[in-house]
User: What shape does this take?
Amino acid sequence: MTDTRSNKFYLSLLKTRLIELQSQDITNADSRDTVVLDQSSVGRLSRMDALQQQAMSKATRQNRIVEIHAIKNALLRLEEGEYGYCEDCGEDIPAKRLELAPTSVRCVNCAR
Ligand SMILES: [Zn+2]
Assistant: This one.
């Protein structure tokens, strides 16, 4: 992708998302403690429910870490001029796909 304008567009898209994820990560660390406190004071949730909730928020956090890595990878690809090309077939990844999922490294056909 040689268009400087679109590179700038994806760069800001990725950076905005990265900041969003990183701030969510901080918020989530707080709310995980709150879940445990609420559970003991209200006592309506069973221990199983609390554990399930904890597992879920752990999974959410894991997904976030994966996405943060993907964004950092995409930023690196932008820097190297590799961004927007399919990793497998080398074709352009359609702009529509990149707008929806700016961390895509494969075109729709190869991602399947
Ligand atoms: Zn492809």
Observations:
- The chain has one domain: 4-83.
- The radius of gyration is 19 Å.
- Residues 4-83 form one domain.
